TrEMBL record:
Protein family: Belongs to the glycosyl hydrolase 2 family.
Entry's transmembrane regions: none
Domain Glycoside hydrolase family residue range list: 738-821
Protein name per its UniProtKB record: Glycoside hydrolase family 2 TIM barrel-domain containing protein
GO MF annotation list: hydrolase activity
Entries under InterPro entries matching the protein: Beta-gal/glucu_dom_sf, Galactose-bd-like_sf, GH, GH2_Domain-Containing, Glyco_hydro2_dom5, Glyco_hydro_2_cat, Glyco_hydro_2_N, Ig-like_fold
Coiled coil: 861-898
Annotated signal peptide: 1-22
Origin species: Flavivirga amylovorans
Keyword terms, alphabetized: Coiled coil, Glycosidase, Hydrolase, Signal
Chain ranges of the Glycoside hydrolase family 2 catalytic domain: 331-458
């Protein structure tokens, strides 16, 4: 008991030394391009090739020919997903079949003589590529990058790059399973970025192009780390496609998170014509900033090639974190030579989004990662395929561990040599693509929940270690899968497993879901946000410590020994499915990334010592249908609840010091020490019989001046450090618009989009949850609205008081005005709302000859209100105020006869 008290004093002392209301560290989104980060004036140029593709959703004979007439085709920008679908798009309602893209472009003078390649981050399904009528490539699989070279068939003037993309079912490549039996959807198209990469004839290779085992591009790995120094190995593959031998100097520069160079070296290298050479170097970095989820510091490793004339020939950079991961069986997971503090809790993530399918731009990928991080998660498992590179960039920068998975789900054709070899190719390429990322903690090279052979399992395990033959590569598969004995870590949901027999670490790949059967698939975890308060609260409590099933809860995982690492929630976001007409509703946020109560429950599990962020949230909306109990999610020590403007004041311990942190001298959290049992780190607090709508009615009708509020205050060390105020929504008076961008601006690149939310609010801005009016959106300026009435995007019905709309940028930065009005306005209806904001210029170099625009764009309209519009608005506001005064008189009359009601 004395030791526990001492630990608690250390914790409190550390907390009081922090600014508990400090702002979160602002990290501006930055993204890699075509597998690398850019180096200024290095001889390599990377262009955004997304804008201006002619598109047809059909199989068109002759569409690969240069002179094919595509004048009547739609013009789109990538990432593009073939079509827009309604937010409820499960049951294989999406298009499957061939589609064509054609891009007209001209090679600028400054690119002549350069080696030109197109880097496709992903095209769904199988694809073929032609340049000016000549086939230059093909690819099978929808989740990994591939590269084609343009030079042989380039011409002066207009060039045409044609892409045939087919997302039909095809069992010859992974995942292989037909969509009508699949738990996700094959949304099609060129749904990730396209880049034009221009280099000299001597260049640093792309690892996904050159097909070299543990080679190609830039390969870094961390050998050893300590607070005093870290050892970083760097290997670079250089190709010479010129007609002469190249004599070069390779200049390495390691830059720390503050932008200061901390290690440099130069090395001479000779590369014969038509050959490649490898340059290796080992760097010792003094007093390193080590990468952790709570301090995700990244170093930039730059490589510059200079010829004998001192000209820059090529240069690239990668970002990586200095960290060491180890899985030590009974001792658990170690990060940077120390036991990891607590459990690894996270979520699985499917990549689709409302309306656009899988076609999420880079900033959208970042926003997804930021939301999951803010939800309190520290690890994301790929479900069930490699993620977009921009999502990986965000995981590294924000501090999210990542479990990479090869494409696969419930299908294995072991008799097909073609299928098996394509799985092997996917495994190699997924390792090559993200091997430098600090966030990658495990590799899952097997096919999810699939009956494969032990020989296949061993082969995929071996492939990972062939491609990453250094410390830090760990494979993972199900503990019941064939060949699991070959793997470094195992997935397991059997919490009664005999850990003494299996010395490896365990992790639950999917926890939380709890269906009645896999046909009906009803579950207390699957909750549509619009169903409201009670279902959302049931979902949150189910994930926390529900009694439904021992496999569903955080409580069970936190009571396991260190050998059990933690688990990933199924699933982070709601998403569409091919084999079931119901979308998966078990996310902590919906398909538009609107959060549910469970988001706040998970967020409250993070200690203030780790995030410097006290959290408190009231899970009661004070509607006529709200329960009498009030549940509060918090990571504070105590909660004080004040009801009805001080008419009730209740204070409770939040039961939080069930687990406390032991802090190192450097302030780094060490292993969480268990003080109690059967508890999550920060159990939710329930105040019994606090809210009564009857009391609310009596208070309002009785002429009392008390405000209808519930206020929760979070207390640490006897001081209030945060508070949350809930107010009962009253008479709806206006529509309020807000930007849901997670501090990420809208980029004017023709592809970026973000969510703007319309909320029905009362006079004081409180959301009226129980309102289902139809909202009509309008836009002017440098953006357009995604979708229309056909997919129920615009107009959009309010659900749980809100209605999201997707706003797409143009290629011009500037002001944007969004207006939201009731579809059917009347004298007593709510006033419309307006929001004006600006997009920011893209930092990318764009190549296009035409621009894709949304079908309902109004980008040329002025955002300035005319004098007539201003006058009309003022008249409407005055009329409503007059009517409100009359309504108050009517309310007074009704109260006079209150005793008869």
């Amino acid at each position: 008991m004395k030791n526990t008290s001492l630990r608690f004093i250390i914790l409190v002392s550390f907390l009081t030394s922090l600014n508990l209301v400090a702002q979160e560290k602002k990290i501006l989104p930055e993204f890699s391009k075509a597998g690398f980060w850019e180096v200024e004036n290095a001889g390599r140029k990377t262009y955004n090739f997304n804008v201006g593709w002619r598109f047809k959703k059909a199989d068109i004979k002759g569409a690969h020919e240069k002179n094919f007439d595509d004048a009547k085709w739609t013009i789109v920008n990538t990432p593009h997903g073939l079509e827009y679908n309604a937010s409820e798009a499960s049951g294989s309602v999406n298009y499957q079949g061939p589609a064509w893209y054609r891009k007209h472009f001209t090679v600028n003078e400054n690119l002549k003589g350069k080696l030109l390649k197109i880097h496709f981050e992903s095209v769904m399904g199988k694809s073929k590529i032609w340049l000016n009528g000549h086939q230059i490539g093909e690819h099978y699989g929808g989740y990994l990058p591939f590269v084609v070279t343009l030079n042989k068939y380039l011409v002066e003037g207009d060039n045409v790059l044609a892409v045939w993309a087919d997302n039909s079912d095809d069992k010859t490549y992974p995942p292989g399973k037909e969509q009508t039996r699949l738990d996700f959807a094959y949304f099609g198209g060129i749904y990730r970025d396209v880049w034009l990469v221009a280099t000299n004839q001597v260049y640093i290779t792309n690892p996904n192009e050159v097909n070299k085992v543990a080679g190609g591009g830039v390969f870094t790995h961390v050998d050893e780390v300590s607070p005093e120094k870290a050892t970083l190995s760097v290997k670079v593959d250089i190709q010479n496609d010129s007609e002469t031998t190249a004599k070069l100097k390779a200049i390495f520069n390691i830059v720390n998170p503050e932008g200061v160079s901390v290690a440099k070296s130069e090395q001479n290298v000779t590369v014969k014509k038509g050959k490649s050479s490898i340059v290796k170097n080992i760097f010792t970095i003094e007093n390193p900033s080590l990468w952790t989820p709570w301090s995700p510091d990244l170093y930039k490793v730059g490589v510059l090639l200079v010829n004998t004339s001192n000209q820059n020939i090529d240069g690239v950079a990668i970002k990586t974190g200095l960290r060491k991961i180890e899985f030590k069986g009974a001792e658990g997971f170690f990060l940077n030579n120390k036991p990891y503090p607590g459990k690894l809790i996270g979520a699985n993530r499917h990549q689709d989004h409302g309306y656009v399918g899988n076609a999420i731009p880079n900033s959208g990928q970042w926003r997804d990662a930021a939301l999951l991080k803010n939800a309190g998660f520290d690890v994301i498992r790929a479900a069930h395929y490699p993620a977009d590179p921009a999502f990986m960039d965000a995981c590294d920068a924000l501090g999210l561990f990542y479990i990479e998975a090869t494409p696969g789900w419930h299908f294995f054709d072991g008799k097909s040599e073609v299928f098996v070899n394509r799985v092997y190719s996917d495994v190699r390429n997924m390792v090559r693509r993200i091997r430098n990322y600090a966030s990658v903690i495990m590799w899952e090279p097997v096919l999810n929940e699939t009956n494969y052979s032990a020989e296949f399992a061993k082969s995929t395990h071996d492939l990972v270690h062939e491609e990453y033959p250094y410390q830090g590569a760990f494979t993972v598969c199900d503990n019941r899968g064939a060949g699991h004995e070959y793997y470094d870590v195992v997935y397991g949901q059997d919490y009664n497993a005999d850990f003494n027999k299996d010395k490896r670490c365990y992790f639950t790949r999917e926890f939380g879901d709890n269906v009645d059967d896999f046909n009906a698939q009803n579950s207390p975890s699957r909750v549509f946000r619009g169903w409201g308060e009670t279902p959302q609260l049931v979902q949150a409590k189910t994930y926390a410590d529900g009694d439904f099933d021992k496999y569903t809860t955080l409580e069970t995982m936190y009571n396991m020994p260190p050998q059990f690492l933690g688990g990933a929630l199924w699933c982070g976001f709601d998403h569409q499915r091919g084999y079931n007409p119901d979308p998966f509703y078990g996310g902590v946020a919906d398909v538009f990334r609107q959060t549910k109560y469970s988001y706040h429950m998970f967020a409250s599990q993070k200690d203030i010592s780790e995030t410097n962020k006290p959290i408190i949230f009231i899970a009661n909306e004070m509607t006529p249908f709200s329960g009498s109990d009030v549940t509060v999610f918090t990571n504070c020590e105590e909660v004080r609840l004040t009801v009805y403007d001080g008419q009730k004041i209740i204070q409770k311990m939040a039961n939080v010091p069930k687990y406390v942190r032991v802090l190192t001298p450097h302030g780094q959290p060490n292993r969480r020490e268990k003080v109690g049992t059967k508890a999550i780190p920060h159990p939710y607090v329930t105040f019994k019989d606090v809210f009564s709508f009857r009391e609310l009615k009596s208070m309002h009708r009785g002429g009392k001046k008390y405000e209808a509020t519930i206020v929760a205050e979070g207390i640490v060390d006897g001081k209030v450090v945060t508070s949350f105020k809930r107010v009962s929504g009253k008479h709806p008076t206006k529509i309020k618009l807000s930007i849901e961008n997670r501090k990420t601006p809208l980029v004017a690149d023709g592809s970026d989009f973000m969510v703007v939310t319309a909320s029905m609010v009362d006079e004081k801005g409180n959301i009226k949850r129980l309102n289902e009016s139809m909202i009509q959106f309008e836009i002017s300026g440098e953006a357009a609205i995604i979708g229309d009435a056909q997919i129920q995007a615009n107009p959009k019905r309010l659900s749980w008081g809100t209605a999201p709309v997707l706003i797409r940028s143009t290629v011009n930065a500037g002001k944007i005005k969004v207006k939201a009005s009731l579809l059917h306005e009347g004298v007593n209806t709510a006033l419309s709302g307006e929001l004006v904001f600006e997009s920011v210029p893209s930092k990318d170099k764009l190549i296009y000859s035409e621009i894709g625009v949304e079908a309902n764009t109004n980008a040329n309209a002025s955002i300035e209100e005319t004098s007539e519009e201003k006058l009309k608005k003022k008249v409407m506001e005055l009329e409503k105020k007059i009517i409100e005064l009359k309504l108050k008189e009517e309310e007074k009359n009704q109260l006079e006869f209150d005793e008869n009601r």
